[in-house]
Each structure stands twice: as C-alpha cells, then as structure tokens.
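User: Could you check the structure of this?
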Amino acid sequence: MSRSEPVAFTSESVCEGHPDKVCDYVADSILDAYLAQDDRSRVACEALAKHDTVVVAGEITSGASVDREAVTRAAIRDVGYADSTDVFCGDTVQVLQLVTEQAPEIARGVDAAEQGAGDQGLIVGYATSETNELMPVPILLAHRITRQLAEDRKTGRTDWLRPDGKAQVTVTYENGMPVAVSHVLVSAQHLPDVTAVQIRDYVTGTLLPTALGEWFAPTVRVLCNPAGSFIQGGPLVDCGLTGRKNIVDAYGGAAHHGGGALSGKDPSKVDRSAAYFCRNVARQAVKSGLASRVEVQVAYAIGVAEPVSLMVETFGTGDARAVEQLVSGFDFRPAAMIERLGLLRPLYRRTTNYGHFGRPELPWEE
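Assistant: Sure, the predicted structure tokens are below.
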C-alpha cells in the first residue's frame, strides 16, 4: 500500500454468530474456565459445530475441574443461539468431547526450568499510524460494522437481526495513505418477515453512518445481502471450526501471517502469546515515531526459549536501523512475554470477536 497510484484494499469481519466464531468462542470460554482455577493450565482446545452438534476436542492438562459441556452451552447462549425452537440452541445441542492430556514430550519442553516454546512456528505483529488504534483502516471499519450489528441485535434496536453476519470494507489508498471508503458489503441474518428494502434502509440509514462515522459518505457503494434473503445461518447451514478466521482475527491481510490460529490456546503456545507480544512491540515502535508502519516477525523451535529468528520490516517509512535496535531490546522468550503482558489470566473470551488487536481494553494494546 505504498505505491503512488491509487490502490483499493479490502478486509472482512464476521459476527460472533458466524459458525467459525461460535467455535472460537467456545474454545476461549473453556480456556478461561481452566485459567480461572489454575493459571498454569495447559489448554489446546478446538471446537466444531454443525446442525445440532458441537464437538469439543484437544489436549488439556490442568489441576482445575471444569464442566466443559456446561461452559460450551453457556457460550452458545451468550452468542445468541438461545431459542429452543431452533435446531442449533445452547440448551439442546449435543456436546461430544474428545479431550486428552497434553503429550508428556511437549510438556517437558514447556515446563522446563526455562520455559520453552509450546511449538515451532513463525509469528507476526504489525502496527500502522494510519489510525489512532494503530490498525489498518479496512479491518478496523469492518470490525466496527459487525460489532454494531451485534449491538443493535442485543439491545433490541433492530429486533429482526439474528446472530450470523459478515461485513467487508474496501478502502482507496493514495501514496500509501487511506483516503476514502469505496465499497461496503454487509450480509446480515434476519427474521423471515423482513423485506430487502427494510434491511437496506437499516444498513444505509443507521448501521453504516454509526459504524463508519466520518468514513461514511454518499459515494460509498453499498452491497446489502447480495445473495438475497439470509434467514438461515449459523452452524445449522454452515460447519464452524476453531481457528478458521486467522486474517479476520489479525490485520485483515495488510500484514503477513504466520498461519497459527489464536483461540483455544493457553499462552504457553507462542502462536498466541508471541502474536500479542509482537503486536505490542510493533505498536511501541510506531508510537516512538521511528517509522509509520512496522512489522515484527519472530520464529521459534519447540521446547526452546530463545527465538531462532527475529525480523523487522518498516516498508521504507522510517529509520529501519533504529527500529531494529528498539525491537532487539525486547525479551521474546515465552516466560518473559507472558509475564510482561500478564497472560496467565482468564481474559481470552474478550479477544474472540471483532479482532484481537486495536482494542484498548486488551493488555497488549496499552
């Protein structure tokens, strides 16, 4: 996005009732339940949801006693699937559990005197000065739309909305900076008796002006439920799976991604803890004024504390050498990252929806 000619860049977000996000929320709810009792719990939890069934699977070693089925049902109800007349409902779904303990060979490396990484992998953190939140405009706005959809549904402001939904925002960049929103796509699940005109009037007259604020203009081209009606949604019609919205969770495609998912993993898994720490470090580099865009990549070997590599990219926006020096002064060992950000707390349900970054209430955004 640093080219001189105008370029269009698009990012998407999904509502908390999207099938994949239902699964992320179940996994993070189970994680939090374990950490609330035992902050040294080792949790790698996955969920799959389809029709009237949820499968909870993974590896968990903990001194805590958690009713995973009860946590799963509560999470589904919290998202909005609480109508007992629906096939997919928190009170009536089948919950199948396929959970074992963490493999002892992994545990030896993670629980060593100097805590090693829970797995190999490369992790990326990113920050940009184009917004106050130090996030790219397209993903920030897409999250605002889906979050507003959920808020309008939960408060009853728009009583025909249902939990599932998506948004997509296209932003025009000139000389590397965002100048205007060109297109917005909103797919909102709704009750059967609502017309397409009612939905569009809500989207263009209420939702987008509220969510986009100063970025909303009459010139924005709006696509609203372009496939037609959207009555059936959620896991009833689409299989959900933990960890399938990695780009939605991160930077909307504006930065590289190491491929590791976030939800359902305790912070010994560097996929999660290092993603948060790299974001925090990139934020500090941008806030220092040394560069306006910073990407930090770190890589690990399983069972080893020290990273095997650390790379910094400033995209020609500042003093690359000074940023590298700043970043190299941080301690990227797992135990140090966990301690610095206070990650042994049950805070992960708060991260599941509307992006893991760019939200000031999260500790890596401070």
